[in-house]
Amino acid sequence: MNKIGKNVVLLLVAGAAAAFVLAFIGLCVHHAGVVRDEQLAASTLRSRLVVSLALSHALRLFPALLLFVYTASFSVCFTLFSFHTGAFPFSRVAVPSFIVLMVFLVFTALSGFFFIPGLNKTSRSIRQRAQVARAALDRARELNDTAPADQDSSERALEALEIYLLEDPGSAEAVKLRGDILGKLRSLQGGKPSPREPVGEQRQRPATSWERGKAAYQRGDYREALYYFERALELHPGNREMEELYRRTRDKVDRQLGEITSGEREQARLVREKEQALARLDEGAYYQAYEILLELHRRYPRLRDLELYLERAESALRRVDFTAEELQRHAWLPGYPDVLFFDAAGVLNTVKRVVPWRGNYYFYQVSRYGDGGIPETWRYGKWLDGLIRLKNDEGYRRVPEGQEHRFFIQPLTGPGYLVLVSQGESADQLNLYERIEQTDNLRKSGMRIPGLWEYLSREIGVLFSVYALAMVLGGIAWSKRSIYEFPPLWKLLIFLATVPLLCFFLQRFYTGANDMLIYLHRYAAGRLAGLNVLVLAAAVNVAAALAATLFFLSRESGME
Amino acid sequence: MRFILRTTLKLLLFVFVLAVPVTLVVTLFALHQSPLPLWNIGVRNVIRYAGGFVTPSLLISYLLATLLVVALVDKMKVRSVAILHIPPLLAGALLGGVLFLVGSGGQDQLPFHIDRNPVRVGVNTFVRRDAFLSAGDKILYLDGKGEPLYLYDRGDGSTTVMREVRLSRRGGGGLYLDPEKRQVVIHPSGAAAPRGKGEPIELPYAEFVEHDSVLANPLVGAYARRLRSLFLQVEEGAEHLERRQRTALLGTLFLSLLLLSVPMAYGLNDRGWRFAGLAGVLLILAILPAAYALVVSAAERFQASGRLPVFHPFLLTAAVFAFLGIVLDLVIALRGASR
Prior knowledge:
The structure holds two protein chains of two kinds. By secondary structure, chain A is an alpha+beta fold.
């Protein structure tokens, strides 16, 4: 590449970078003011939010910035310094600037399809985290101020405060509050360490069932040891050492059982019921196993092995079911209000509030409007394996056969998208891949989101606006370029004050005209045998781009 | 003479090229002020509404064309800046004559009259099908086939379901518009509504407006508000005058604007850097409405004080602008057409 070409590339790239950085800094200042008004609790989140908002905004402004850089370069920069010394043909400037424009167009496309939606998603996620942090701090303060202080409220306050501290670990107020709560807990427990505080023994807890069983046996917790040995034997059947220790434990447990149960019949019944429960657990019939074990645990609350088996059954059930307590525990968390969507059966579902929390989605006050128009309302719902399981206050309970359609909602899309359905403006966080994958389902769910072809038509409008206007403005600027070594200062100031605005509005008017074209497609489609909107938009934009290219290429080296 | 005719022709060409986009922009500006959802107003409505803005749009196009032509004129061919005033006057006379002949202004109308053609709206203008639509504290959903209609209340989380939706009918259950109160009314009679919710639900038109266009930009909004207040100020000042007086005064006002803007654009036109002229046009457009508002207000205050009762404020404003224009002309003439 010749020297002129190199300088053109350097000027355009450096100019675009400088314009982008300046815009980014200005937008950081602007968004810092806006975010300050939002009063986010965690200061670390605030700066992250400001950066992501400013970056997204700067990327949205990038097409207009690029137009300004091209106008300024062709009008002023390509006549200064080394450009001023010798005569050179227009092609020496036109070809490299065209290639650089292509590179910038790729960047614009990537930012429109991926970077901007990604940043929008990040901003919303930070806002959500900030809301959670704020709610957690408020809850911790409120629970700590509860009089008289009790262990439960102090533990819940500590739990909420730990959520806040995850986002803002350096907060002096939160650290002081933590100290207060821990002090209260210590005094409530009579100086014993809080169960939440790390204890050396807990950290060195044996890892395998066999080791845990041995540890429990040595402590004299034979029921617990029995549970772990049974699990260890399931994994290592025929292991003599294990079998021997299991037999001994069994003897000890039987002796203990004699003390707990009133007679041999009851003892036999307990053993039989426990075996039934274990058989159900092995079969994967967790609901039945849970019912038996729950009943046994109620009758014999001191039997540790039953408690552990019950926990095992519960842990299996948590994968397919939930309890109302779980949702009540998370009800204080902020979430998405008024979520409405249609499911796969075409039924309208209204949810008063959806709370996303650590990979789970909790639904509160769910109403379903079927054919009759009379709603069926459920207090709670939880996203489980692609479905929303509904229930009122009951615990783990199997759904009656043939009634699955009442107890489950089958949405058309994932929970992360579902919460956006009745908030149409949230579509700006979907990238190209998500648009391709989700648009149809989101539209069926009731979201006001443009169809895929319409979306692509809008995006190519942005790309062509950059291309066509850069060609036209570059061409005009070249024809009317400065012949001074340095242009008159006050006119340069007027140029710098007005031309960025001109570029911004021209780019917006071009995309606005493209939007009108998309709108007019509804009139044209009937007459043009269902012409695809993307084809129409592409044809018109390509025609505009061709005209702009011809205009640009028709420029000459000499001054007009 | 040849230069004058060529420049006049160029100016008229610019007016015709700019007329359509300027009319569209002015119409959209005006529509944006009304509480109507622009996204679904329909092309026919836009065209009908634009019909009422032909005269002011032509005047704006004419002013813009004048500024562009003067800002880009080849200074080598301009013997005197005074001559540069003639092409805009010729083109203005031609346009004014055409407007007079086609009879755009009635007996009692202002020369810059705007026919506010009513926008014909229906329920479908407001209610989008097959998608949730947020309106105030309600969320609506109307099926593509026209029924059912779901109306969700954000306050209590209840939903009204209307199985048989009758559009554009008053009373007796249905969905209709009340143009007097400018609101969409949903009458859920016979619908599956929560208890005590059978009364009509009234949603003002403004609840359906979405500000997602370039017109919602704060800068554009501020400029549009300035133009609108200026226009209202002029309209208010001229409405009590007789037609002939009104025409003469407003014509003088407009001519004074030309008298000022031509030397300004010419002064910013740089022979060595002609893009500076284009940038200068933007600057003139940005400052003119503010300058006009300032002078008109000052003239009104001056006249209200009774110190110069003979003059109408517009005449005073025109005099101020004409004086400034002549001073600029003289400065340019004295400095010569340097650069």
